[in-house]
């Protein structure tokens, strides 16, 4: 068997074995054979394959390629593996049973149907991982719905939020991703038995019956229009995975940023030498987040190439199909791998509530600037209130005094002390805590739908 000639450290360290196994050579061969057997069983019901022959064909279940080097050599010569597979399957049968496999089918029928089975299965694994991650996030949100911290826009302090609120936004995305991946799994799990040019002529007068029955046997959707060059269902699966990967990248980036030494509001799970540096003993690098980002960006990059696979011309592709063999499995496996790490990371996430509180005051109370402006707006108008607070902010930054004191100084002659109301951070959270409840409720409802 031909081995990869290059060493891929990202996959070697972090690839999800369960996801990778779905697209392995062994699993692919098993699926190809399962489709050929299901086709023969269906054609037997229609009198096209004799009973005694079918028994022997059914015995091919579990067949393994003995000489993988020969198999790969022959497949390279043909350009596809099905011709050599059929030769080896027929050679393993008694002469009287040979010649009844693959009746009416074309190579792409078998390979596309097998890929549909694999995409659906890996998509279901991704679905399971999304549910695992979402459930972990619900726990974090519930515990920290009132854990106040700085909200940051353009990487700077903006207004107070809670950590639960921040995570609620990620959970809401996961709710939508769950709906999308379920739809993609359903749609991609569709049979492709339409013959050479898509007309099903080679299957004979009972072609529709054959396709319907084989789809049932393989637990796939029966479709009545060929899709040899219509790759939209697979593009949908790749896109759904890429959107999940994008959310994971954002989540991982958030963890990295919030774990900076000068912020230290959260930290990845630790342990002896977890994220250690070879030369700086104090380092605890956020390696889980970093691996998520590497895998997730790989997924989104590969998913983008799937759109080129949808550009195939005429009734069968000439090159675009080959692109799909590489990028579609890698998109799904990378996404599943990133999800697995995200579940582990979030399950052991350290949340430093005290540092969150301390960071609220790092800018001498400027995080409450909007609150003070909104409070003054009814008295002097929003624009003038904005200018007054803006002027006060400049004083705070230069003199490091309290924002309210600075505001009173710049408002002298305009406002009196009775016009000012000091507002605490926990009284300026808007809908933050209710959004925590809403996101969790929507998640639980969507998870079981």
UniProtKB/TrEMBL annotation:
<dbReference type="InterPro" id="IPR022761">
    <property type="entry name" value="Fumarate_lyase_N"/>
</dbReference>
<dbReference type="GO" id="GO:0003824">
    <property type="term" value="F:catalytic activity"/>
</dbReference>
<dbReference type="InterPro" id="IPR008948">
    <property type="entry name" value="L-Aspartase-like"/>
</dbReference>
<dbReference type="InterPro" id="IPR019468">
    <property type="entry name" value="AdenyloSucc_lyase_C"/>
</dbReference>
<dbReference type="InterPro" id="IPR000362">
    <property type="entry name" value="Fumarate_lyase_fam"/>
</dbReference>
<feature type="domain" description="Adenylosuccinate lyase C-terminal">
    <location>
        <begin position="364"/>
        <end position="440"/>
    </location>
</feature>
<dbReference type="Pfam" id="PF00206">
    <property type="entry name" value="Lyase_1"/>
</dbReference>
<protein>
    <submittedName>
        <fullName>Unannotated protein</fullName>
    </submittedName>
</protein>
């Amino acid at each position: 068997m031909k081995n990869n000639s290059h060493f891929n450290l990202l996959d070697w360290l972090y690839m999800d074995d369960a996801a990778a196994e779905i697209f392995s050579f062994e699993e692919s061969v098993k699926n190809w054979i399962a489709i050929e057997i299901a086709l023969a069983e269906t054609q037997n019901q229609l009198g096209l394959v004799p009973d005694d022959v079918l028994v022997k064909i059914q015995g091919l279940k579990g067949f393994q390629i003995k000489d993988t080097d020969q198999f790969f050599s022959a497949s390279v010569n043909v350009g596809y593996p099905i011709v050599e597979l059929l030769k080896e399957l027929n050679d393993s049968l008694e002469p009287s049973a040979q010649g009844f496999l693959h009746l009416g089918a074309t190579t792409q029928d078998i390979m596309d149907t097998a890929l549909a089975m694999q995409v659906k299965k890996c998509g279901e694994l991704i679905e399971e991982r999304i549910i695992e991650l979402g459930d972990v996030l619900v726990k974090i949100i519930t515990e920290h719905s009132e854990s106040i911290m700085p909200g940051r826009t353009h990487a700077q302090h903006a207004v107070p939020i809670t950590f639960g609120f921040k995570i609620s936004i990620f959970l809401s995305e996961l709710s939508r991703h769950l709906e999308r991946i379920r739809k993609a799994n359903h749609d991609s799990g569709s049979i492709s038995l339409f013959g050479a040019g898509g007309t099903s002529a080679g299957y004979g007068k009972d072609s529709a019956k054959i396709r319907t029955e084989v789809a049932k046997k393989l637990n796939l959707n029966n479709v009545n229009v060929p899709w040899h060059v219509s790759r939209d269902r697979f593009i949908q699966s790749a896109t759904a995975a890429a959107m999940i990967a994008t959310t994971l990248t954002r989540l991982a980036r958030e963890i990295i940023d919030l774990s900076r030494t000068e912020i230290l509001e959260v930290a990845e799970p630790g342990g002896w030498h977890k994220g250690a540096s070879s030369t700086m003993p104090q380092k605890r690098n956020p390696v889980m987040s970093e691996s998520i980002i590497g895998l997730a960006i790989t997924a989104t990059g590969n998913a983008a190439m799937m759109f080129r696979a949808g550009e195939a011309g005429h009734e069968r592709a000439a090159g675009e199909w080959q692109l799909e063999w590489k990028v579609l499995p890698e998109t799904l496996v990378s996404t599943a791998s990133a999800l697995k790490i995200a579940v582990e990371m979030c399950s052991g996430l350290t949340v430093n509530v005290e540092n969150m509180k301390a960071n609220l005051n790092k800018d001498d109370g400027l995080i409450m600037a909007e609150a003070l402006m909104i409070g003054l707006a009814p008295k002097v108008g929003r624009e003038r209130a904005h200018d007054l607070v803006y002027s006060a902010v400049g004083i705070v930054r230069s003199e490091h005094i309290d924002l309210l004191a600075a505001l009173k100084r710049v408002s002298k002659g305009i406002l009196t002390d009775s016009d000012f109301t000091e507002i605490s951070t926990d009284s300026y959270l808007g809908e933050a805590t209710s959004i925590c409840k809403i996101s969790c409720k929507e998640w639980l409802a969507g998870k079981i739908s």
